[in-house]
Write a structure and sequence with these properties.
Length: about 110
């Protein structure tokens, strides 16, 4: 299996490389993009990617942020229920984020057959 070195910039601005499986740099970058933690991001400028591929990676990063927000809101919703407060505010926000996530993932799927 082929591996690629993908540049990643951490929260402090330092660049390091992750060796990941992938037949192309785009495949490897998609793989790494799904594993990045808070503050880390791909160094897209140093990769030779098309505009469509860059768009997919940006949408994937946005999906990751939405998933984090969904996790935080879910915790707040559970805390509200435990404190006998109405979780309605959190449920409305969760529904909106879920719809946005679903649309982004559908766009990614259409762009990457």
């Amino acid at each position: 299996m082929e591996t690629r070195l993908i540049p990643v910039i951490d929260a402090s601005g330092l660049r390091n490389y992750r060796e990941v499986p992938g037949g192309t740099f785009f495949e490897a970058a998609r793989f790494v993009n799904g594993l990045l933690n808070n503050g880390e991001r791909l160094d897209i400028e140093s990769l030779d990617l098309t505009l469509r591929e860059i768009d997919v990676l940006e949408k994937q990063a946005e999906c990751n942020l939405i998933r984090q927000k969904i996790g935080e809101l879910s915790s707040k919703k559970c805390e509200a229920i435990a404190a006998n407060r109405s979780p309605r505010l959190y449920l409305n926000q969760l529904n909106g984020l879920s719809v946005k996530l679903w649309r982004l993932e559908r766009e990614i799927k259409r762009a990457c057959p």
